[in-house]
Design a protein that fits this description.
The protein is of the alpha/beta class. The chain is built from two helices and eight strands; from the N terminus they run βαββββαβββ. It has helices at about 15-25, 80-85; strands at about 10, 30, 40-45, 50-55, 70-75, 95, 105-110, 115-120. A four-stranded mixed beta sheet has the order 1-4-3-2, covered by helices on one side. A hairpin with a 5-residue loop joins strand 7 (about 105-110) and strand 8 (about 115-120). The longest helix is centred in the first third of the chain and has 11 residues, at about 15-25. The chain starts with 8 loop residues before the first strand and ends in a 9-residue tail after the last strand. It holds the Pfam family Glyoxalase.
């Protein structure tokens, strides 16, 4: 077996529309085809790849399973992202990764999943 890349992440949501709004309106993913599963949800795409699956309609786990700490996306347009997060009152932490100098921005989705956005080192520091 050879791993060729990441296929998708799945998050569980208390409120499907709120989660879709975050990932689509804030992070710019697009909703696309999703097979007709017996439970509500959405598949969100970057270009033609479904990279985030949202599952809804079942209770949130009381004790989260697994050890995944966060999901990370490659992104562009740091200033517009910072402006959008501020506009929506979403707190974030932004810093440069020492050694690579890329910008790393961390925030949380509406259900508490940690999201990392990695921006090219060539992008200027955002203005307040």
């Amino acid at each position: 077996m050879t791993i060729e890349g990441m296929n998708h992440f799945t998050v569980v949501s208390n409120d499907l529309e709120r989660s879709k709004a975050f990932y689509m309106n804030i992070l710019g993913l697009k909703e696309g085809y999703r097979p007709p599963f017996a439970f509500p949800g959405a598949w969100l795409y970057a270009d033609n790849q479904a990279i985030l699956h949202i599952m809804a309609g079942k209770p949130m786990p009381l004790n989260a399973t697994g050890v995944i700490d966060h999901m990370a996306f490659t992104a562009t347009n740091l200033q517009a992202t910072v402006d959008c997060l501020k506009l929506h009152g979403i707190q974030f932490d932004l810093h440069r990764l020492k050694g690579l100098e890329i910008w790393q921005l961390f925030c949380h989705d509406p259900d508490g999943a940690k999201v990392e956005l990695d921006f090219p080192a060539s992008e200027p520091e955002p203005k307040s």
